[in-house]
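Hi all, posting the design record for the shared folder.

TITLE: backbone redesign
STEP: 1 of 1
STRUCTURE INPUT:
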């Protein structure tokens, strides 16, 4: 039985490798990296042949092929995405793009219908992208013209649409057809450490999601400060934050931060505050934070 399952897996692998090779051929992709990929796919096919001709198929052989497939898959994805693969590229101001869904609209059925996915991704997420781009352009214009009259409005827009864009860009990718189950590896270990058990985590997250007042999100987050996982709710997502960003420099403008000395003159406080900024620490935070680069859209 087990052996039969392995055979099905290897057949799928071979089908995929042949499919990619055909694609390379069809589009006459003969640049160096494509040729390299082609050669490695040939090697993979010969490996699959070799393994399936050896009875019985061993765990070791399976692991070897799995590793090869994972690395080739990544390579192929990178090559075929071409300039859309911008993992390390800076998104220019006002040029965010709608990430393509990593599966078809109906792939999550029956749990999430095709109609919802289409509307949610093509209409709602798209409008977040457009709104964020507009807000960024308008703030850029404010910097050029030194006219900040509408800054509050555009910051709100950037927060609302930015959070919408970034959270949805996470959302599509943390789902997949035939998903579910439990996580593995170090994540499972951390969940157990921080929530007691996976079941307790799941229950807490479920309740957090159900109890979000009005619109919003439930989020599992990593706190670099407490070195722990946390479950958070966000009611709406636009309350002047862009989720999926990391604060580097912050300025407290609650009244308790300046009132005793400046009374209502917040402007004076802000202006003077620049004299005490510790840029070494901000640099340090930037050096750490900028190592984290998700694929850009
Ligand atoms: Fe949404």
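Okay, here is what came back for every position:
SEQUENCE:
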């Amino acid at each position: 039985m087990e052996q039969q399952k392995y055979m099905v897996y290897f057949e799928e692998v071979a089908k995929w490798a042949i499919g990619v090779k055909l694609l390379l051929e069809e589009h006459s992709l003969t640049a160096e990296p494509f040729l390299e990929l082609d050669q490695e796919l040939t090697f993979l096919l010969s490996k699959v042949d070799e393994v399936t001709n050896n009875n019985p198929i061993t765990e070791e052989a399976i692991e070897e092929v799995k590793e090869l497939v994972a690395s080739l898959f990544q390579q192929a994805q990178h090559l075929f995405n071409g300039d859309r693969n911008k993992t390390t590229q800076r998104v220019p101001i006002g040029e965010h793009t709608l990430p393509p869904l990593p599966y078809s609209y109906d792939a999550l059925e029956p749990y999430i219908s095709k109609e919802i996915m289409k509307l949610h991704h093509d209409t709602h997420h798209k409008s977040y992208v457009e709104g964020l781009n507009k807000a960024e352009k308008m703030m850029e214009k404010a910097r050029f013209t030194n006219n900040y009259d509408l800054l509050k409005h555009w910051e709100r827009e950037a927060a609302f649409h930015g959070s919408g864009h970034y959270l949805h860009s996470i959302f599509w990718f943390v789902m997949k057809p035939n998903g579910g189950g439990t996580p593995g590896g170090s994540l499972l270990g951390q969940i157990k450490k921080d929530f007691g058990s996976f079941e307790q985590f799941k229950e807490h997250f479920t309740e957090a999601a159900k109890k979000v007042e009005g619109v919003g999100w439930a989020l599992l987050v990593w706190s670099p400060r407490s070195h722990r996982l946390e479950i958070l709710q966000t009611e709406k997502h636009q309350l002047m934050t862009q989720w999926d960003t990391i604060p580097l420099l912050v300025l407290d403008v609650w009244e308790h931060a300046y009132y005793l000395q400046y009374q209502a003159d917040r402007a004076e406080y802000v202006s003077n505050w620049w004299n005490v900024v510790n840029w070494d620490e901000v640099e340090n935070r930037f050096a750490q934070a900028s190592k984290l680069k998700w694929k850009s859209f």
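COMMENT: The longest strand covers residues 216-223.
Let me know if anyone wants the other runs.
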